[in-house]
Write a structure and sequence with these properties.
Helix content is about 85%, strand content about 0%. It has ten helices and no strands.
């Protein structure tokens, strides 16, 4: 029990820290580890709750930078596909779900690293398409951030613009996901660990954000997500078949 609580604290702290650094790092870094610790369903639900809270905190000072014309259709599209993600989580066997989650994280990270550019990812159509993809991925695998990263890349959002817009999207898509799935079934000690880890992670992330170059922080998040998350989860699912 104590070991599990320590692992939970470490995972949430790291995820909270990198989310503050980049605007979307919690899910990529924490979800694979959380589903290995708590199981696919509870791990994803906890990630949705924690990421939503962190986005809400960050948005308090950044809401003036939100591009409403892009974010409203993006969030609306995500609301339409969250139920499909919820259905996937509830009906797939655990090994298959682990494979889906690991594959989604791995492919998403590789697309971001490659810097995929396509006309379909621009404008209103791009917002709707990436929002729909993000809604499904957020509920099925807890990782709704990569699609908006691809949209931001093609919309040529600056780093300053990306963070508040990602937080706005993250807040609403996680509200939709929590509404569809409920809150995680954790004990009192586990909830206390999560709350403390989130608070400390936000403070550390805020301090590091002032000293860490954006490119270096982004590279760290993607490396952790790919090597320590997506590939590990994918392999675990394959081995459990």
């Amino acid at each position: 029990m104590a070991t599990g609580a320590l692992w939970l604290t470490a995972i949430v702290l790291l995820g909270s820290c990198v989310q503050w650094l980049t605007g979307m790092g919690f899910a990529l870094v924490a979800v694979p580890a959380l589903i290995l610790l708590l199981g696919p369903t509870q791990g994803v639900i906890l990630a949705n709750c924690a990421s939503g809270v962190i986005c809400a905190i960050g948005l308090v000072s950044g809401w003036r930078e939100v591009r409403w014309s892009a974010m409203v259709p993006l969030c609306a599209a995500s609301a339409c596909t969250v139920p499909l993600g919820a259905w996937t989580t509830r009906h797939l066997p655990e090994p298959a779900l682990l494979i889906v989650m690991g594959a989604l994280v791995t492919v998403a990270v590789l697309l971001i690293v490659r810097g995929l550019r396509a006309p379909a990812l621009r404008g209103r159509a791009g917002a709707v398409g990436t929002g729909a993809a993000g809604g499904f991925m957020n509920d099925a695998a807890g990782v709704g951030g990569p699609p908006i990263s691809l949209y931001a890349l093609n919309a040529e959002l600056s780093a300053r613009e990306f963070v508040p817009n990602a937080q706005f999207y993250g807040l609403f898509v996680n509200i939709f996901s929590v509404a569809a799935n409920g809150v995680p079934r954790l004990g009192g000690v586990q909830w206390a660990c999560v709350a403390v880890a989130m608070a400390v992670g936000v403070l550390i992330g805020r301090a590091l954000a002032e000293r860490t170059p954006e490119r270096r922080a982004r590279a760290l998040v993607l490396t952790l997500a790919l090597g320590g998350g997506g590939v590990t989860t994918l392999l675990k699912g394959v081995l459990e078949l």
